[in-house]
Amino acid sequence: MTELHKNLIDGDWVGTEGVENINPSDISDVVGVYARASAEETKQAIAAAKAAFPAWSHSGILERHAILSKTSQEILARRAELGELLSREEGKTLPEGMGEVMRAAQIFDFFAGETLRLAGEILPSVRPGLTVDITREPIGVIGIITPWNFPIAIPTWKVAPALAYGNTVVIKPADLVPASTWAIVDILHRNGLPKGVLNLVMGRGSVVGQTLLDHPDVTAITFTGSVGTGRRVAEASIKVGRKFQLEMGGKNPTVVLDDADLKVAVESVAQSAFFSTGQRCTASSRVIVTEGIHDTFVKVLAERTVNLRVGHALDKNTEIGPVVDSSQLKQDTDYIEIGKGEGATLAAGGDRVQSVKDGYYLQPTLFTGATNQMRIAREEIFGPVAAVIKVKDYEEALATANDTQFGLSAGIVTTSLKYATDFKRNAEAGMVMVNVPTAGVDFHVPFGGRKGSSYGSREQGKYASEFFTVVKTAYTAG
Question: Which residue, of 19, 78, 95, 162, is most buried by count of CB atoms within 10 Å of its CB?
Answer without folding.
Answer: 162
